[in-house]
Amino acid sequence: MNKAGKAIGHFLILLTYFQLHTSQAAEFSAHGILDVRISQVDSLEQSYLASGQGKFALGDGLQLSVAQAGADLSITWDNGLSAHGVVNAYLKGTGDGEDSALGFTEAYFKYRTLPTASGYRFQTRAGIFYPEISLENDAYAWASKDTLNSSSLNTWIGEEVRVLGTEVKVTRLGRLNNDDYDLSLSATAFINNDPTGALLAWHGWTTSSRQTLWAEKRPFPWFPALGEGQTLAGQARESDPFLEIDHRAGYHVRGEWLLHGKGEFSAGYYNNRATPYKVVDGQYGWHTRFYHLGARWRFSKNITLVAQYLSGDTLMQSHLREDVVNNDYANAFVALTYKWQTLPWSEKSANKKHKSTIRLEDFSVTDNDDTWGDNNNEDGQALTLSHSYRMSKHWFLSAEFNLTDSHRPARGYTGKPIDLIEKQWQVAARYFF
Amino acid sequence: MIIYMGISLNNKIITFSLLLLSMVIMPRAYSESGCNDGSINNTCVQVFVKSKAGQALVDMVVYLEPLNGQVLEQSSQEVIVGQFDKSFTPYISVSQSKSTVNFVNKDDITHHIYSAGSDNKFSFKIRAGETNTSTQFNHASEVAMGCNIHDWMSGYLLVVDTPYFGKTNEKGQVSFDVSKQGKYNIVVWHPQMQAKNNRMSIEKNIVAPSAFTLTLPEDISDTPVQKSDDDFDFLSDY
Hints:
The complex is a heterodimer. By secondary structure, chain A is mainly β. In chain A, 8% of the residues lie in helices and 51% in strands. In chain A, the strands form three sheets. A 16-stranded antiparallel β-barrel of chain A has the order 1-2-3-4-5-6-7-10-11-14-15-16-17-18-19-20. The longest helix of chain A has 18 residues, at 3-20. Chain A is globular, with a radius of gyration of 22 Å. Chain B is mainly β. Chain B contains two helices and 16 strands. Chain B has helices spanning 2-7, 12-29; strands at 43-50, 61-66, 79-84, 87-89, 92-96, 101-105, 111-115, 122-126, 131-132, 141-147, 154-160, 165-167, 173-178, 182-189, 199-206, 210-215. In chain B, the strands form four sheets. A five-stranded mixed β-sheet of chain B has the order 5-11-10-7-8, with no helix packed on it. Chain B has a four-stranded antiparallel β-sheet with strand order 12-2-14-15, with no helix packed on it. Chain B has a four-stranded mixed β-sheet with strand order 4-3-6-9, with no helix packed on it. In chain B, a hairpin with a 6-residue loop joins strand 10 (141-147) and strand 11. The radius of gyration of chain B is 21 Å and the shape is globular. The N and C termini of chain B lie far apart (56 Å). Classes of the chains: A mainly beta, B mainly beta. Chains A and B meet through strand 1 of A and strand 8 of B.
């Protein structure tokens, strides 16, 4: 059993122990999502999930897949403590994609106090969790609410940014201060996120609903610097993003301003403080830092805007402390969601059963090092058009079109076009519970 | 009256006599005043609440505070503070101190109701469909309530030391059958009223049926919208 497996094991033992030795009434809940899709992909033969260069979850062709089967399990005690475990499974599609996978994506304890008379509330989380960054993946099991594919920004968060740590959050509730806004500040100290940045460097920005499971290794495309005698010959062929390599804690801080009934603005900074020249079993420390901005705004009861921006850098060095990978990266998206109150072709009220989303993305990676055979430059844009219909309380039918247009010299290493337009049509039945 | 009439359908004589009786009482019982007790000993007091611009204000709490040491009975009215559609329904409740306050969760999810004020601090979790009467309100106070799971929920319970309390209707009117004549403080309260302690009052000697109008000097501010920014039903609380 590896370290991560042990951590989850300890969590479960602790949970059992706590449940057996407490007289507090506990409430169990199980929520989740099942997402079954038919996808028509016009990209490359192999997707990034199957060590290829394709930017979607699946490679070329018409395919049936279970894009997510997730369960969000929790136990809540009356004293404000709760325990959460999120399990996600991805079943092998009908094409040549990646194999099936099942595992934990999050496992943590949360404790929330009641607000004080002056409206201050403290909350802490401890365990394995996502730093609060994504404004898209707020459905159960970190599913994306308004689109089938997360933006490339949040697909990366789901792939490489996860921590084992402790978060402390202070919220000032406006309700108790006669203000129409809430303010939150949070700080997290964490470990086990040292190789973050490797996958972004080696397959660039991608878009899917795939999250990396805790302790899961992920492949990346071949490039010449991995060859024998080359700079990166010592790099393992799969990256293990949730490792602790140098025993130095990283941190994440975030602030949020939430205007009641209107929207929210947030800003944060992540720094894993990894030692860039440390390597364990072919997994390097990548010193990865970025700041992120987020906004959600309700223009009316019909129209909501969500926008995020992320910009940062990552550094990985040889044991001689020479830069091997030194990248800057940036990503931004704007998404507008329209909830249909009435339908143009029908007299009847749509009762908000239909919603449409348009999302525009712009992303880049800038390679600042001189390592031969490892060009990480990338520049691209993406467009998503999505429509979702709520058939019943639990069932949602969605249709989505994704397009990415990117310039990526590294695709040339495997004989793929450096400038590439990829398209994908998806129809999904999603069951939320 | 109506109930008795229903029960005695098989007995025409009783029905007829009750009908006669009700005809005598009815005009008084359902008069414009809103007072519903025909007892000769009670004094009907109507209170109208108006805005600065003269418009009738609905859902304003009005209560009569005895000032001559009148000993008033304990109201038998039980209050229901509902949680429905992830909001406090109604937004404002009023209760006499020592009366039972029923918190009723009409949603299919758990709420965590609390009051953070030092005066009336309490909290409890209330599961779907449950009723909770565990909290005692033994003295007059203004209780601001929230839900620690759904931050946008906001409700008020005003606890008063009198059985004469109510909320204005669409006409801005509320009526009381006052059993003990004497001097009263007529108080109007609303959590968003721009005034000291969110209330205004006038002292009146109540000796005969009468109507009073209170006009607020300032507009009340907007009541909070008890709605999540996101109405998606399957949100995880990250």
